[in-house]
Amino acid sequence: MENQELALTLVRLTLQSVLARPRSWVVGLLAAGAAVLLTPGLALVESISEGTRRSLIESGTGDLQVYHSGSTGVPLMLVGPSGEAELTPLEDYPAAEAALRSVEGIQEVVPLEVGMGAVFRGNYLDEKLAAVRAVLREPSSEARDARLALRVADLRRTLERVARDEGNREQAFAAEAAYQEDREALERIVSADFWERFAAEPLPALELIENRVARLAGEGESVSLDYLGTDLTRFAGAFPRFELLSGQMPPPGSRGLMLGHAAYEQFFKLPIAFRLDELHRALERGARLADDEGLRTQVDRNQAELPDLLSRLDVERGAALQSALARALGHPGELEALLKEFLTLDDGNFDARYKLFYAELAPHLPLYRIQPGETLSLRNPMKLGSNVPVKVWGTFRFRGLGGDSSRVNTTSLVDLVTARQLANRPTRAELAEARRLIDELGMGDAGAPATDEPLGPLTIVDAEPVKASGGELVVEREVLADTFTDEEMKDGSVLQAAIVLKPGAVPEEVTARIQQLAGEKKLPLATVSWQEAGGFVSGVVGMGQVLLFLLALMLGGFVLLLSTGTLLLLAKERVGEVGTLRAIGMQRRDVFLSLLLEGLLLGGVGSLLGAMAGAALLSAAVGQGISVSDESLQFFLGGPVLYPQLKAWHGGLVVVGMMWVVAWASLVPAWRGSAVEPVVAMSRRGD
Fold first, then answer.
1. Mind telling me which residue stretches traverse the membrane in this protein (predicted)?
2. Can you tell me whether residue 474 is helix, strand or coil?
3. What is the pLDDT of residues 245-303, one digit of tens each?
4. Which of 319, 387, 494, 613 has fewest C-beta within 10 Å?
């Protein structure tokens, strides 16, 4: 009973003291100000983390990643500066997948292989040579002969243009013997005699042009192409953000490549058109050509590359483009002059010219260097494998994750069989065949490699067969077929697999079940979460959380210092009051608790009001969500709209944190105030 009365007395004294001294409210205002900032800040950071989690999980990472426990690295879904992760292949992947599917909580298991590919793009002369070859392969007919005549005439004009350009550069490279040989070959090729022989023997003539002249038109370029090797049909069904944009999915059992739409736009689109798209996006965001030097540089680059564009046009396209430009500009003229005028852009004419470009000009331009249905030759520059031809079936993107400027949409998809070839990793059947051949040749253990890796996938060589009595081993294999059987796909190893969990499944519990399964069945399986597989993407989110923590520390320190100073001043003013309380029998401990409760009350009420104000501000500011116009940020924020979700624990954490800070700030004033002797306190009150 006495304790209850004492507690009520302390509460009354605390309330009276707070109400009687408005200056003490400064402590509450400080706590409120910090809470106003931290409450929406915590909600925003939590929403960003959740958005990134959804983006990664729904775009191929899955909730968990499974890989070989003996690997030196961990799975990474995006290839970083250090290259691909060092993973040991899961040799018997079908058995591992079957075991994983039996684990409670797992909805889907998708095999994956992250790799870096490269595609070599030739110059405009290479493209014209390829166009002539394509017509030559067609069955002979009058229509084919007419098209061939047009292609050959266009090739001849292009070579004459190359000869004129080389005449201007001759002095700069006159000392190089190889250049002089190519130059002499070019002079022979532009002669009338060469084109008479071309009509009789076109293929040898094309080979001469390609080997001795094509490089005079400029070097080609190698384009990097990050890819995911996977079961394409299963991947598209497992990840809800997958969206087919053009072409079609490869039929089951077909080798093929699905280009990420951002990679298709950035690397295979006509550079002039791609820059116009970038300018359009920038102007839609409110930029102006008149104010942005970088945008004006893009306009200048388009005009500087007109000669390259003209060199890629054949006669038919050039004539059609010239007519379209004359209609758009309202007057006739030479093609190059009309193009230069059309691409002279400013803020006043850009929108109209951009619409005209796609409506009138694009149909007559080689807008993309490759179309669905055509074949690309891929290789992995990190491996010692050969080029692997693969058909492009279409393009795709991950819906709502940044469009054509998002890193995740530059990733392409390829079937597992092709991915193994790119990684230079043989199947078990290929290894067995290689060992059989070695044994037949009598090489035995001396000729067998220490590991399977050096064997690699076997490539076609142009060589005579050798006898078994000796000599160098030459192994031939068939050209990669366009299709594969289910057994062929399952025969090879897999580097990692994405685990998609059922709704409501807890990742930590599923991870524990997988580890238990691996131990029971002696499977070499290890798991990582989406955060670890996300690599630098997860790191960016982690940096945001660290920054919020640092902001909270700074605000907490600021509140701590000012609150301590304010409460110390108030404690000095109350020395006489403390003396009176001590004189009538209040213990020092009770005085200490009263002063401490005063600080806690100020901090608690202030932080609670601040958290409520922060929640109201967040609700008023975001409304129906925060629109994310910058496509490069959409992946981190979970889509084109960020929906900050304020949860009860956000406000509770902020309130408790601020009360803890103010409690620490109250300790010194409460201790010093309660330490004054009653006689001294009474004398000061009398003073």
1. 546-570, 591-618, 648-668
2. coil
3. 999 999 988 999 999 999 999 999 999 999 999 999 889 888 999 999 999 999 999 99
4. 319
Euclidean distance between CA atoms 655 and 39, whole angstroms: 9
Residues 88, 493: Cα–Cα separation, whole Å: 10
Query: Can you give the pLDDT at residue 455?
Result: 46
Across 465-478, average pLDDT: 38
For residue 329, what are its two tokens? 């500009």
pLDDT top residue among 344 and 619? 344
The pLDDT tens digits of the residues spanning 500-518 come to 999 999 999 999 999 999 9
Question: Each residue of 63-101: b (16+ CB within 10 Å) or e?
Answer: bbbbbbeebeebbbbbbeeeebbebebbeebeebbebbe
Burial class (CB in 10 A: 0-12, 13-18, 19+), 246: middle
Distance CA 57, CA 62 (A): 4
**CA–CA separation, 600 and 605 (whole Å):** 8
* Contact criterion met (CB below 8 Å) for 667 and 565: no
What is d(CA 177, CA 193) in angstroms, rounded to the nearest whole number?
25
What is the token pair recorded at 288?
């102006």
Beta-sheet strands, E only, within 400-515: 412-415, 496-501
Q: How far apart are CA 411 and CA 440, in angstroms?
A: 43
| Residue pair 498/229 in contact by the 8 Å Cβ criterion | no
Show the tokens assigned to 683: 């004398």
CA-angle at 179, arms to 174 and 183, nearest 5°: 95
Q: Any residues with CB less than 8 A from the CB of 528 and at least 6 apart, and which?
A: 64, 65, 67, 74, 75
Q: What is the pLDDT of residue 444?
A: 57
Tell whether the model's pLDDT for residue 338 goes beyond 90.
yes
Buried b (16+ CB within 10 A) or exposed e, 162-192: bbeebeeeeeeeeeeeebeebbebbeebbee
Q: Shortest CA distance to 646 belongs to which of 1, 47, 29, 18?
A: 47
Neighbours of 375 (CB within 10 A): 13
